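Re-running the complex after MR caught last week's input typo. The corrected sequence lines follow. Everything else is unchanged.
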Amino acid sequence: MLGEVEQRNVGYTEIQADTLEEVAAFGIEEAREKLYGPAMIEDAGLFIESLKGFPGVYSAYVFDTIGNEGILRLMEGVADRKAVFRSVLGYAEPGMEPIIFKGELEGEIAAEPRGSGGFGYDPIFEIGGKTIAEMDLAEKNRISHRGASIRALNSWLASR
Amino acid sequence: MLGEVEQRNVGYTEIQADTLEEVAAFGIEEAREKLYGPAMIEDAGLFIESLKGFPGVYSAYVFDTIGNEGILRLMEGVADRKAVFRSVLGYAEPGMEPIIFKGELEGEIAAEPRGSGGFGYDPIFEIGGKTIAEMDLAEKNRISHRGASIRALNSWLASR
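Corrected-run output:
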């Protein structure tokens, strides 16, 4: 199981790339050089199938500019609303090749924003008729892509 | 004046950043290490005022995913259609700090795509009622943001 985790804002270079895996693989190399001991970084994004994966790797930027309103405009009248939240986690220890862990959450883009919980795209991402912003924190953590990638790392740490 | 220019696909890291200047400043450092002699890189983007600068630094990615159709959807019913094309050029020679040159072209987002020339966002970017895609190459080169940044470099080279 994980021991203590400390969040440190050392900063690392986020590259432009097609996949979160590339961003994390590049970033963990830089982060590990700035930290002593084990290092972990996480990057996440929303990938909408009918928009060729947009906003994808640039989800934070897209949220800050066109926001959920923009995403819903782009999805007006679009029948295929399939989307996936992805979380990619880079982990490294001194003297070891970094490892990438992933988590995914499949869902659909809602017709309009609903719910007041969560943040970012949570109000427009729904599963079984409920948006993430309509879930309580326990429910969100149980299904979330970040929860999944963290648990994957946790299992790996516990198993060796 | 510029002498011979050779295009080489050495590749360099494009970072995620708020401005083209940051992307070019980071990239030219890497490109110069890979090249002998003077090196130049160029990055460009479309910045739409009412969309907080979107698609900006990620213009290529946005074009490849939601395209001009997506931009026009986001601009439906939006009165303020002001936009600017920006080109940023990083130039370096051995033993010298890189210099950044810029070019801009102000215009507006058209109501629908027009014209068959150019590429990318050219059909939806208009100046004085004419889109870039409706201009011939000579006209485009005379006003273009890339033309401006290249001429700025050229003047600098000629003046020293």
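None of the earlier attempt is carried over here. Residues 20-159 of chain A form a domain with the Maf protein fold (CATH 3.90.950.10). Residues 20-34 of chain A form the longest helix (15 residues).
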